[in-house]
Design brief:
By secondary structure, this protein is α/β, with parallel strands linked by helices. It contains 10 helices and 13 strands. The structure holds zinc ion. Zinc ion binds next to strand 2.
Length: 245
């Protein structure tokens, strides 16, 4: 095996171990909220890594037509590309959460009290909205207990998921397949993890996530499900006053 292959194999093993140990729905050391109440047919769609154009625009157009509000875990770097789009999402009733400043896996693994990666994403959002987000999802869903504590101390609710989708795979998985898989895994209170962008990409074309939502929403409405934001699902506020610096 060449040293490059060896390195790639090591990275793959590290990724798999990290995901197994640190990601929802099994772990997170008690800090993850992975679903809402199981006794009501309310569910929440969440989208990570945006915003981007045209992917996020197409998605929110489709959601407007479906009359569905979602929750978007936005990245500081992408927010700075498209502040006008972020404001539009907020004004249309979607909930904006923090997905860190720049999507580094390392920052959450590091011990200590450095929370710049959290505050950077927060500041990018607060600058546009005038309020700070109260929901956070760590990049890759990797959550160490110390990062969970840092986030909780900073006033965040850490949001995982109980329905994971493969909509981030490139080339994209067909939207109807994504919808069927998500439908199969749905329970009352479910939180879905979708993606509306790619970290650090200002322009991104992504058609299948939108197709998946267009297929999933009517299927579940027929079963009596209602689509709500995380704030409504969990009955907690989505925002707090901007932090004094
Ligand atoms: Zn992400």
């Amino acid at each position: 095996m060449s040293s490059l292959n060896l390195k790639q194999t090591a990275i793959k093993a590290f990724d798999a171990a990290g995901t197994k140990l640190l990601s929802p729905p099994m772990n997170g050391f008690g800090y993850f909220i992975n679903h809402g109440p199981r006794n009501k047919r309310k569910v929440a769609l969440t989208f990570d890594d945006g915003p981007s154009r045209p992917a996020t625009e197409h998605l929110i157009d489709a959601m407007r037509k479906l009359d569905v509000k979602g929750s978007f875990f936005c990245l500081g770097v992408n927010v700075r590309y498209h502040p006008d789009l972020l404001l539009q999402m907020y004004q249309e009733g979607h909930v904006i959460g923090n997905h860190s400043g720049w999507h580094s896996r390392k920052t959450g693994l590091m011990l200590g009290s450095d929370i710049r990666h959290i505050l950077d994403g927060e500041e990018a959002i607060a600058e546009v909205l005038g309020v700070r987000p109260c929901f956070y999802r760590p990049p890759w869903g990797w959550l160490t207990p110390w990062e969970g504590k840092r986030l909780t101390d900073a006033g965040y609710k850490v949001i995982g998921w109980d329905v994971y989708t493969l909509d981030w795979v490139i080339p994209e998985v067909d939207g109807i397949t994504l919808a069927r898989d998500a439908y199969r895994d749905t329970k009352p209170g479910s939180i879905y993890c979708f993606h509306d962008a790619k970290p650090w990409e200002k322009q991104w074309v992504k058609t299948e996530t939108t197709r998946a939502i267009q297929a999933l929403v009517p299927m579940l409405r027929e079963q009596g499900y209602e689509f709500v934001t995380l704030a409504e699902l969990l009955d907690v506020p989505a925002y707090a006053p901007k932090r004094e610096v």
